[in-house]
Amino acid sequence: MTIALETRNLEKSFGGLRVTRDLSLKVMQGARHALIGPNGAGKTTVINQLTGVLTPNSGRILLEDHDITGLSVHRRVLRGLSRTFQINQLYADLTPLETIGLAVSERMGRGGDWWRRMGTRADVNAEIAELLSRFHLLDVMTELTSTLPYGKQRLLEIAVAIAAKPRVLLLDEPAAGVPESERHDILAAVAALPRDVTVLLIEHDMDLVFSFADRISVLVNGGLLTEGAPDEVARDPQVRAVYLGEAADA
Amino acid sequence: MTAPSDVSSHAMASARWRISEVAFWVLALGCAFLFPSRYLIMTDIVRLGLFALSLDLILGYAGIVSLGHAAFFGVGAYAAGLLALHGIINEPVIALVAAGLVAAVLGFLTSFLVIRGVDLTRLMVTLGIALLLEALAERFSDITGGTDGLQGIEMQPILGLFAFDMFGRTGLFYSLVVLFILFLLARRVVHSPFGLSLRAIKNNPLRAAAIGVPVNRRLIAIYTLAAFYAGIAGALFTQTTALASLDVFSFERSADLMLVLVIGGTGYLYGGLIGAVVFKMLQELFQSITPQYWLFWIGLVLVVIVMVGRARIHRFVLFVPNLIIRQLAGRKAAVAVPESDAS
Question: Which chain A residues contact residue B197 at CB under 8 A?
């Protein structure tokens, strides 16, 4: 099996605080890999280094065996590494149609076209329509994102990430804050992600993790505590003590 | 309707010409014919409108604030003046484009300073660049004429056909045509994928990068284009007044421009044009009432606009026109209301 995404001895400190400690992760091609850990374990910092928002102090990041440690955020996206955000990072003043249209245009290398109007490329339109309908957004496509219900925004968040046609997708707490009534759509959308897309899921919600992941890495204090199949991790006494125990108390 | 064609028509909807837009330009042209005694002030408004359109491109679409936009206006003004004065390029239209390009080069070079940092940094950097240029223009007085400005500029006929007249008639129509052409170009640009990516950057640069938008490259491109527009506005100033003096770089010019956009609103292209009309008319009105204290009233108007909210004022002002259009057109029609407000 090939490795889709890998970190080697990743280190990141903020001042004297080591938030990522010698982290070596391997995410296999086509995997449903989950990265879990208690609050403050450094999960978001890891994501930010993977996507290029933060630069690690040392260590390397490899996407399909290419070193991407020094690449800028948008270049990693064009290489096939896309993400969703934990807190919605959408464009409040744009509609879902525009948001997805832009993502599709950028992936096709058409984002810099300044003479062509939106909506005049049939291939772009077809893809936008497909994504909007797959994520149940057709009926709200001309409404401003800021006015959409939270669940729809979460769906749009995932749809935008998918619009970049990633080979590796980082899902940062996709169901966080979504009301119970709208959860089903999100979970269905996550479950229906194409199998050839490798997914790294960062999640707090244990039900979602154990129903979705085929492999779990546990992050504690910035370092890897353990890693394995879901049932192994669930049985691991260290994990129960550090993470699940704490979650049960909370 | 199938989904893709539905998507296509909705995606193109924002770029479609509205009745109100056509009405706006017909009205502008009508004014040019109806008030022959007011050519100079109308030229002034057109120029200011073009200048404000330039700022709207970076502020309203890309979210770049600037307190030094006069830098490009001034460079365009002096470039046009020097080209005409030394007979380097005599034909005004070619000289106009050349002056715009000079400003664009300056815009490109300074964009690298501006795209870094946040709003406050940008305000200071843009302001600094304008002050710097003003000082340079004063220092190199053998080229710029120093505090006296460039004197003795004589403009050749436009395209060799239309001579500038003492009433400013040619100047006005010339300015209007330039404004309209550049407006069409701007309209094209903001409704393109490129324009959409600017709005995405303005909304959320982090997310824009995360879907593959090369944020810095796009900001450099629009900043350079805006500098070109401002340079053209400055060149128009020199060409229509046969003057270029140090005040083309002045801080007041940059600041007035912000006021124009505060009055007219940003991000729908007409804000700068409507703002320019209102600003100049208010200026005229207040100056005729209290020549000394007109700034007081401008200040008051600004405070009211910001406190009451532009959207509410627009709705109020446009209530009757909207009603008429809705009756005639029989559908939900939008008059000059910002897009965020119209939908």
Answer: 102, 105-106, 111-112
